[in-house]
Each structure stands twice: as C-alpha cells, then as structure tokens.
Design brief:
Keywords: FAD, Flavoprotein. This protein is an alpha+beta fold. The chain is built from 13 helices and 21 strands. Helices cover about 30% and strands about 25% of the residues. Helix 1 packs parallel to helix 5 and helix 9 packs across helix 12. The longest helix is centred in the C-terminal third of the chain and has 14 residues. The two termini are about 20 Å apart.
Amino acid sequence: MEHDVVIIGGGAAGLMCALTAGRRGRRVRVLEHANRCGKKILMSGGGRCNFTNTGTTPANFLSANPHFCKSALARFRPEHFIAMVDAHGIAWHEKELGQLFCDDSSKQVVAMLLAECAEAGVLIETSCSVETIRAAPAGGFALRTSGGAMATESLVIATGGLSIPKMGATGFGYDIARQFGHAVLPTRAGLVPLTLSGKHQEHYADLAGVSVHVSARCGKARFDNAMLVTHRGLSGPAILQVSSYWEPGKELLLDLLPEHDIEAWLLERQREQPAAELRTVLADVFPKRFAQRLCEVWFTSKPMRQYSHGELPAIARQLAHWPIVASGTEGYRTAEVTLGGVDTGGVSSSRMESTTVPGLFFIGEVLDVTGWLGGYNFQWAWASGHAAGAVA
C-alpha cells in the first residue's frame, strides 16, 4: 500500500496532523495501536476535555530548548482551534485561567477530529501495531504492521509519552527516534501527585480529601491554586503544576496563605480577638481539620493574647514558607504528561521534521516539550500537528 503520509498514533497531535495533511490532498493513513483514537482526549478534563488555553505562550512550556515551541505555537493559536470547535457547534466554557472545556463531553472533540479526517480522505486503522520500520533505498519508509506491509513518503511519529500506561502508553516513539539516530532526553513523570512517607505522611494522612489554596514554589516556578491532601501525599492543581519542576533533592515550599500578609493578619487578630485560641483563628482561613492539625503538630494553640512579640511573626514565617519533604511522585501511572523525550536539537522547529532524516517527523508529547496544566499540552498537540501536517 502506497501512501504520501503515514502517522503512527491517533491521539490529539496525530489526528490534527492527519486532517491538515489530508486537506492538502495528501494520501494519509493513521495507524493507532489501541482499539479507538483519542483515548487521552476522552479522559481529559474529567470527561469534558480542557482542549486549549487562551493564554498560551511559550513560557507555559518546559523544554531543554525553550525557544523550540515558539514557531508552531505562533502559527496555530488557540483561536484557530476554537474556530474549528465553533464550526462543529460544540458548546464550550472558560473554567478559570483561560482554560476552555466542552459544556457536554470530550467525545465531541474526538468526533470533530474524526469527521475532519474523514472529509479530508484520511484512512484510520485502529488495533494496528507497527512491527518494523526501515528507510527505503529510494527514499521514504517501508513499514511492516499487523495489518500488512506499506510504504510511505513521509512518516510522522505521534506516539505520545509514557504517561498512563493502562491507556496504552509506551516508549515506542523513543525507540523509533533512536533507531534513526535521534537523541532522547531522560524522561520523568510530569503533572503528577507527590508522595510523602514516614512522619511527613503521618502528619497529613488522615486529612485526605482536605483542600487548601496555596502558592507552591520550586526554584523560580510558582503556582497559586488548590492543594489536595491524598492518602499517599499531595495533589491538586498547585501540586501537579509544581511537580514538573520538582525533582528529589530540590526544595519545595508552600505559602499556605498566599492572599494574606500573614504577620499583619495574625497581629490584627491578636488585637481584635485576644481571647480566641490560635486554632480557632486559623479555622477562619483554613478547613477546620487542617487548622487543628497545624496546632496539634506544629504550633501550640493558646489564646492570642498569650503570644509574645516574637511568636506570631515566627508562626507567620512558617506559614509563608511551609516545607514539603516529598519522597517521590506517583509516577507515570497517574501522570498527565511525560517530561523529556525526543531531543528538539535534531528537529526543525517550523516543520517538526528531522534535520537528518528527510521525511521523518515528530509531533506532540513524544518531543521534549511539556506544557503546564490547563489545556497547554493540547494546544501544543494541535500546533505541532498542524506544523507537520502543513508540509509532510
């Protein structure tokens, strides 16, 4: 079977690449090893798909080369994807911080992409595994798959990363990259809950389900959002965001009251509520169970009037620089993304094409480009897929 473009991977990036190339009149075939396309799209956003973020900039991405994502993001912007969504009559809403979700279901986004692919003449083969790939002597690539042999002029790797293996994630894309001489940077789980152990876990374990608005800081990265205590450690948007910057040995600090001048607030409470105990005062700004635990383990609770001139400022400093000693992360099992991947140093930032192997393209999460939580990774999938589809 002869094709102009074969795309391995029927996720967000692969389908966008397919429909873009198909619209150009290219003969496109998508090979998806799962039994259906877009599984990660279907589960995202609690089943409502956080399909983009209106505030997307290159600063929202991590990569060994922070400039790599600029070209593709500039040429396919959130408004371009929104226009497609609107054209298909899919109702959406902004939840917070520029995050756009379907009003109804993630299934609508997958159906839209598949409809666009069908209109562009794209052939999609599911439950199809790729067994071998080799460069053809006359150019292009020869593939052997569970569905038979095929040849193609352009080959696009859209296989994703290692996140959520129960959904079929594998390192196959990295293997292909290495086969053709591309470097693959070390990978690790990103946007992932952190685990605690020992006394650090004991202090929080029975607070599972409690949520606190915090500012999580690791190095220069800072994220203000909710932290959720879990049975194994900490999760919630603020923790997931900062997890992409944290590694064992790095300092991780929380400001537990980011919207307060904590020292001034405590001194004001001392003046206005001198008889109130600290745990009662803290329960005005924290969930009651969390406030009680702070006073049981870290602070002595007594009437506010009994705190000396230096004690309340010391408590304020601790609340503003709360150390978290994580033992690790929950790993790829629950990670939303994979950090690292195919080194962008060997890939064209405008075309997503290998700079050493003509006709070989890498798009989406398989590349060393990882977005923040909140629709950024989908926008990278759309943008990189479009960039490759425009030339493959």
